Amino acid sequence: MEEGKLYKVLVSDPVSEEGLKLLREVASVDVRTDLSPQEIMEIIGEYDGLLVRSGTQVTAELIAAGKKLKVIGRAGVGVDNIDVEKASEQGILVINAPEGNTISAAEHTMALMLALARNVPQASASLKQGEWKRNKFMGLELHKKTLGVIGLGRIGSEVAKRARVFGMNVLAYDPYISAERAEKIGVVPVSLEEIWDRADFITLHIPKSPDTYHLIGAAELAKMKKGVRIINCARGGLIDEKALYQAIVDGRVGGAALDVYEEEPPGSDNPLLQLEQVIGTPHLGASTQEAQVNVAIQVAEEMVNFLKGKPVHMAVNVSVLPPEILTEIKPFIPLMQTLGNFYMQVFDGRVESIEISYSGEIAEYPVTHLTNALLIGMLSVMLKSNINFVNAPIIARQRGIKVKESTIKDTSIYNNLVTVKVKTSNQDYTLAGTLFGKNDIRIVQIGDYHIEVVPSRFMFVSKYIDKPGVIGKVGTILGNNDINIAGMQVGRQEIGGEAVMVLQVDNHIDRNVLKELEKVEYILSTCFVEL
């Protein structure tokens, strides 16, 4: 260890020197980017900090071997190569740099859009072959064209702002963005169907998940405006590449610019890359000198703050509460995350405001940490990305979601009760939950219905008319599809009126089964929930 330095930090992946300079102010920094996983395992016990990018897999075993580890930094956006849960168990802070590549990704999207509109790569290749075919590469202006932005997060918002400067009309689809936020950015919130129908250019800025896999397939491409051009700098798999190939060959789609692919690197036999109308780059969205410097500096600054005992702002698993208070409220964190996650999968509409009422013993403690746990549950469903106690309230504000807390020390029904009232673009919804004992979670209100639900990993939630035989028909359909029912709760306001049922099931219910259930007489709505 360097003289006068209290801490040692291992850097196991290439990181910009600008970030390392900051770290060296407070720590002895060893840059060892040539180590194998086993070699890192053998030496990690000597270090207080570990700084990585995507190359090093920070597994539970590696973390367990880091007996002195206090902080792990990821010079990048995600933390999918870090076992955050294991780090949390050992009291190790995990830090990332979620905003470092936003501008680079947005600018790359614009670069591809312009290149697609003006046939830049094709014209350049032609010229270098000694040709002078000006008529062959007739292009389009972006001015007054309609851009459909799918996903209005950090990158999507920056793309929208730049497109407006080019004079484009910008439509945006994001089911979780408020109308107020959309207006501030200067876009028109619309449905996906409107984007398919109206957009001249479509750009994707959403995470990949089971819900977004092949979001653009043959059916969607068939609905699009003839000649539409598509840009994807987000994630491979959002577009069905075979369907896109066919749509371009058939003349339905005018062209595509892709920075990401279902298989990376794409095979040499990928037919899309053989088409003249397709521009491809090798996942370069964050590949700028500035982005690499930015993420290195951001994560280094946060690691320095932590080692100096200062507040951190980009931690994934931070807790800023005194240990004695955290011990008291910790059992409620899973309840709040469950309520947020359950809410977003059951109810619809853009969330505009959230009111959380804490009643009973829990009202005696600071509840903001619990509110943030609710936001984590909600935003994780919205964004399918890394949401934590630090960025959850920030992201909620960015999306125009207003959050209000209140506490009531007395409650006549439960020792503790959390009631969540959400105002959406459609209507208002209520969800409530409590704890029995220390960790027995119950959902005790869904909408207007009082019920006592024991949450499980897989659940079927349905609103229906309380008529004999309805539940039996649901059970029969699930059984015919090899889906076992582990438990059931129902709630109603009056005999023969509307009611809600929640079934705990043993495995996933796919869309085809849900469609079959929707056809049952007196079933009003169906929903599959996975926690």
Describe the protein's topology:
Layout: E1 7-11, H1 17-24, E2 27-31, H2 37-43, E3 49-52, H3 60-65, E4 71-74, H4 84-89, E5 93-95, H5 102-118, H6 120-128, E6 146-150, H7 154-165, E7 169-173, H8 179-185, E8 188-189, H9 192-198, E9 201-204, H10 218-223, E10 228-232, H11 241-249, E11 253-258, E12 278-280, H12 289-307, H13 323-329, H14 332-346, E13 351-360, H15 368-383, H16 391-398, E14 402-408, E15 416-424, E16 428-436, E17 440-446, E18 449-453, E19 458-465, H17 470-480, E20 485-492, E21 498-505, H18 511-518, E22 523-530
Parallel strand pairs: 1-2, 1-3, 3-4, 4-5, 6-7, 6-9, 7-8, 9-10, 10-11, 11-12, 13-14
Antiparallel strand pairs: 13-15, 15-16, 16-17, 17-18, 19-21, 19-22, 20-21
Helix pairs in contact: 1-12, 5-7, 14-15, 15-16
Structure description:
The chain has a seven-stranded parallel sheet, with helices on both faces. A six-stranded mixed sheet has the order 14-13-15-16-17-18, with helices on one face. The chain is globular, with a radius of gyration of 26 Å. It has four domains: 7-100 and 290-307, Rossmann fold; 102-280, NAD(P)-binding Rossmann-like Domain (Rossmann fold), CATH 3.40.50; 319-447, D-3-phosphoglycerate dehydrogenase, domain 3 (60s Ribosomal Protein L30, Chain: A, 2-Layer Sandwich), CATH 3.30.1330; 456-531, Alpha-Beta Plaits (2-Layer Sandwich), CATH 3.30.70. The model has no long low-confidence stretch (mean pLDDT 89). Helix 14 (332-346) packs parallel to helix 15. Helix 7 (154-165) links the parallel strand 6 (146-150) and strand 7 (169-173). Helices cover 34% and strands 24% of the residues. With 531 residues, it is α/β, with parallel strands linked by helices. The chain has 18 helices and 22 strands.
